[in-house]
Amino acid sequence: MEVFDRVIATDASEKQIASAEKSPRIDYRVATAEASALDSSSVDLVMIAQALHWFDLEKFYSEVRRVWKPRGVIAATVYKLATISPEIDAIVYRYYSEIVGEY
């Protein structure tokens, strides 16, 4: 199922962009997370996969605020479960082990 009508995918590496899987719904661009060159107030969702630790977070969040539409969403994914504090970790672990289950 196709979820989004349009995706703008950016990466600072021209090589990464060149080897990305092609799709008519995806517009690939070479750009950093901190200077995306996207139009202001043009993005519903900012998605980061396995890269947030590389960003200059102050500049990145400023860029996100610039490109977001009202009520925009940011989502960051990682391969491992994040650990934050024992109380939060217990909730996340329960969610993954009892609710999501094996995938």
Backbone CA Rg: 16 Å
CATH superfamily of one domain: Vaccinia Virus protein VP39
Can you count the helices? 3
The name CATH uses for the topology of one domain is Rossmann fold
Low-pLDDT sequence parts: none
* Level-1 CATH class name of one domain: Alpha Beta
Q: Distance N terminus to C terminus?
A: 17 Å
Helix content: 25-40%
Shape: globular
Structural write-up:
The protein has 103 residues and is an alpha/beta fold. The protein has a domain of 72 residues: Vaccinia Virus protein VP39 (Rossmann fold, 3-Layer(aba) Sandwich), CATH 3.40.50.150. It is built from 3 helices and 4 strands, in the order βαββαβα. The strands form 2 sheets. It has a two-stranded parallel sheet with strand order 1-2. Helix 2 links the parallel strand 3 and strand 4. The radius of gyration is 16 Å and the shape is globular. It starts with 6 loop residues before the first strand and ends with a helix. The model has no long low-confidence stretch (mean pLDDT 91).
